[in-house]
Design goal:
This protein is an alpha/beta fold. It folds into two domains: 215 residues, Alpha-Beta Complex (Lambda Exonuclease, Chain A), CATH 3.90.320; 213 residues, Nucleotidyltransferase, domain 5 (2-Layer Sandwich), CATH 3.30.420. The protein contains 17 helices and 14 strands. The strands form three sheets. Strands 1, 2, 3, 4, 5, 6 and 7 form a seven-stranded mixed sheet that branches. A five-stranded mixed sheet has the order 11-10-9-12-13, with helices on both faces. 34% of the residues are buried.
């Protein structure tokens, strides 16, 4: 039995998760969004190699193994100064470091993460690598966590030296060496026994979503759900005060965004939320017909989705006196970012920002509530409570994360039929977001 870096990290977070990974991997459930994170993380690792170009790749197979470790030693003996996926084995533990680079007569190694900062869980990852490398006899001078530079702004081709920041975390890693040395035999011993009995807890979600949650949930005794009342509890005075502040014409607005780690477009940053779509329901007066407008950017890497969105949005919102959004911080932040990145539209975008109003207020302040909302003001809870005939459950795309991932995927497929289907599903989802706001306002108007 041998541990790997990922097995060690998994086991220190939850020994049962490691045991299940080794013996009941068929019970593992990996969501599509998690799978996308894994694949994009691999792409980031390859991009980071350009930080130290012309290195030798030690892992030629799909995963590091004894052959990779042998190849690494050969590269070291041959005098290569940069090795990618350098593999080492010590104390029944195998690790492959993303980048091994020789500096000032000693080796430094770099763990690459597709995040905007060094996080506590990364220290565990790097600590076990350091333990194995030093145990293998390597002279290690420094340990780095390489992540995105949140202040990097793309202009033209990606500048890898500016995109990434390398934080030295050697001192923190050194403090964890005794812990690593003690944990390895404990985890290996645990794997020789029966499935550990461990109750579900915060570690099922933090720092990562465990992919064996469904298995563990299956052993929890099912509790009959308590029937919650849909009868509204309403502060009529406050609800009426709120709706009376709404000036017509009214627009209901909702954005969808993508958050690529590596910036795709000029004037964008790592993990910046880039609006690519909006839905807008417009009503001249309380009695007038409601009109719907939508924008969905072309799925073309040569076209920044924000430019067309801004121009169309300005035109379609010009006559609205009130622009209703649900949870104003999101749309307001996106508009401020658009003003920063496209200053030529600053005045028009500021005008939109000035007219924003938050439809969540009556529910967040509990002016209107039902037991079925379970104390939440999320539109996913409010909508079924107020308008049970409307539901996200029947949609192919039913939440913002799925919408974001679906649109990102369109950039990398040539299947036109697939593109057409996804684009229609995106339009359907975003349309429901603003239609939901229309229906919620109707309920409030009738209080």
């Amino acid at each position: 039995m041998m541990l790997s870096k990922s097995k060690y990290v998994r086991g220190t977070n939850c020994p049962k998760s490691l045991w299940l990974y080794v013996y009941k991997k068929d019970q593992q459930v990996i969501s599509e969004s998690t799978q996308l994170v894994f694949s994009r993380g691999t792409d980031v690792g390859k991009l980071a190699q350009e930080y130290f170009p012309n290195g030798k790749l030690a892992v030629l197979e799909d995963y590091p193994n004894a052959e990779s470790a042998k190849r690494t030693q050969e590269f070291i003996q041959q005098g290569f100064e940069t090795i990618y996926e350098a593999t080492f084995i010590f104390d029944n533990t195998l690790v492959a470091v993303d980048i091994l680079h020789r500096e000032n007569g000693k080796w430094s190694f770099y763990e690459v993460k597709s995040t905007n900062s060094t996080k506590p869980q990364h220290l565990i990852d790097v600590a076990v690598q350091y333990y194995v490398l030093v145990g293998s006899g390597l002279q290690v001078g420094n340990a780095y966590l390489m992540h995105f530079n949140r202040d990097y702004v793309r202009m033209g081709d990606i500048n890898v030296k500016e995109l990434f920041i390398a934080d030295s975390i050697l001192q923190e890693v050194l403090q964890k060496q005794t812990e690593v040395k003690e944990n390895i035999p404990l985890l290996l011993f645990m794997l020789q026994g029966q499935e550990p009995t461990i109750e579900m807890g915060n570690y099922c979600h933090d720092p990562y979503e465990c992919d064996f949650q469904e298995y563990c949930k299956s052993f929890i005794a099912k509790v009959e759900p308590v029937e919650l009342s849909s009868l509204p509890i309403v502060n009529e005075v406050e609800v009426r005060r709120f709706v009376n502040t709404i000036e017509y014409p009214v627009c209901h607005l909702d954005f969808e965004t993508i958050m690529p780690g590596v910036p795709i477009f000029n004037e964008s940053r790592p993990y910046q939320q880039i609006p690519f779509q909006y839905s807008l329901h417009f009503q001249e007066s309380k009695e007038s017909e409601i009109k719907h407008y939508a924008y969905l950017a072309p799925s073309d890497l040569n076209i920044d989705p924000r430019f067309g969105l801004i121009k169309q949005m300005i035109e379609e919102l010009k006559d609205a006196k009130t622009i209703l959004v649900y949870n104003i911080a999101f749309e307001r932040t996106r508009i401020k970012e658009l003003m920063r990145d496209f200053p030529e539209f600053e005045n028009e975008l500021q005008s939109i920002d000035d007219r924003l109003m938050d439809l969540i207020i009556p529910f967040r302040k509990k002016f209107y509530r039902t037991e079925t909302m379970e104390g939440s003001s999320s539109i996913k809870k409010v909508l079924p409570a107020l308008c049970p005939d409307l539901s996200y459950n029947e949609l192919e795309i039913g939440n913002g994360m799925d919408a974001s991932n679906a649109f990102l995927d369109l950039y990398y497929t040539n299947d036109e039929k697939y593109k057409e289907n996804v684009r229609q599903n995106l339009l359907n989802y975003c349309h429901l977001d603003t239609l939901a706001m229309v229906k919620i306002l109707e309920v409030l108007n009738n209080v």
